[in-house]
Amino acid sequence: MNSPEYTCVCYSLRALNIIDYNARCFEYLSIRAPKAKWALLSLESLALECKTLTDRNDVEFDYFPLFHFLKELPTSLIFEIRTLSLLTKLKYLYYKRKLLSLLRDNFFNEYSEVVQRNLKTCRGAAESEVILRKLARLFHVVLLNPELTSQDMYRYEFMAEVLNFCYDENIQDNELVIDLLKITIKMYVVELFDARNVRQPEYTQGFLKYILEHAAKAGFDVCRYINAHPRTMWEYSSNFYVVNSVSIGNIEKTLLLLQYGIEVFSERDIRKCGHGFPFIEETIPPAYLMVFHMMSNMSAMNNFIHHAVRYFNNNIYQLTRDQMECFRLIWRSIPTPFVKQAQMASAITNEFFHLTRQAIFNPTRYEKNTKFSILYETSFVDLASGPTEPRQLKHLSRCTIRDCLRQQRSLPSGICKLSLPTSVQRYLNLEYD
C-alpha cells in the first residue's frame, strides 16, 4: 500500500512588512555613506533569505542561518563604516533588533497555527511525536523570551494545550514530554494584570499520573523545577505539592504523590514556615513546623469553603474526614516519630522567649501556633498524646527501601522489580499500614 503524499505549504513572515523600514535605511545611509553597499541591508535581500529558509519547511533551517545573515550585515560596510554618524549606527542597530524581535514573534504565531492544524490531522502517536519534536527544537533555536506580555499570552495557552494533547494521544517519549513541560513551566509574567484573561486548560484526572510517570522515567524532579520558577503561569503546577492535596482532602492525589516519592516538606517549606529571621537559630523542629503548616492550610481551606463546624471559643475549624485521612497518609511515607502536643507547646514557648531575648516580640505567631497545636491534638488524639516512641521497625524498613528507590528515580516502578510477595509490594507502595 502506497504511503499518502503530504503537500508542503510555504508560510511567509508577515514581520518583513515593516512600514517605512526600507525608506529609512535609504535615507540615513544614502546621505551618510552614498557609496556603501547598502543593498545587503535592504529588506529584499533579507526577505529572499528568509523565504529560502522557510521554504525548506523545517525548524532547524529557519533561524540559525538567519542569525549569521544578520551578523554579516555590519561587515559589508567595512570600508565606509567611518563615514557613518553615531546616530545612523544607533538607528540601524535599533531597526535590526526590532526586526529580529518581530520575526521571532510572528514566526512562532504562524508556526503554532501550522502545528495545530497538523496535529489535528495526524494519524498516530508516531507522526505527532515528529511534529512535537520540531516544536521543542524551535524553542531551543529561536530562544523565545519566557517573560510574556499581554500580547504573548497565546504562546502560553498554546504550550499548555500541547501538554494536554500529549496526554490525550498518550505520547510515550519521556524526553519530549519533559522538554515540553519545562518550556511551559518557564513562562511567566511580571505584571499579574497581564494574565487576567489567560485561559488555563482543563486537565483530566489521569494527567497528573501521566506527568509523574514520565518525570520518573526521565529522572526529572518536577517539584524542584517548579520551585525554581515560582512565577510560572502554569497554575496546574500547584497539583504537585503534597500540602495542597492534603489541604483539599484529595486522598487519591495525596497517595499518588507520596507513591511517586514527592517530598512532603522541603527545605523551602521549612524556611517559609520558620520565624523569618535568617540570622537567628530556629528552635522549632522541622516536624513540628510541618504539622503547623498542614493545620494552617487545612483550616484556611475549611474557612474558605465554609465546610466545617466552628469552635466558638478558640476560633478554630475542625478538619474533614478526608483531610484527616490525607494527613495520616503522610506518616506512612516518613520515618519521623509522631509529634506530641505537649512537646509542641513547649517548643512554641521556647521559640517565643528565644525571639524575645533577641528583641523580637511576636505574639501573633505564638497564638497561631498554639491554636494549630490544639487543632492537631483534637483531630488526632492517638498521634498527639502519649510518650514519644520510635516508629516500628517494619515501617522504618519501608522508609529506607523507598528512600533508596527514590534516589534512583525508581518510585514506584522499582518496587515490582524487587521480587517480593504482593502483600509486601503493596506495603512498600503505601497502600496500607
UniProtKB/TrEMBL annotation:
Entries under SMART domains matching the protein: SOCS_box
Family matches, as CDD domains: SOCS_ASB_like
GO BP term, pick one: intracellular signal transduction
Segments forming domain SOCS box: 383-428
Keywords in alphabetical order: ANK repeat, Ubl conjugation pathway
A matching Pfam family: SOCS_box
UniProt xrefs under InterPro entries: ASB17, SOCS_box, SOCS_box-like_dom_sf
Superkingdom, taxonomy of origin: Eukaryota
Stored PANTHER family: ANKYRIN REPEAT AND SOCS BOX PROTEIN 17
Protein name: SOCS box domain-containing protein
Source organism per UniProt: Oedothorax gibbosus
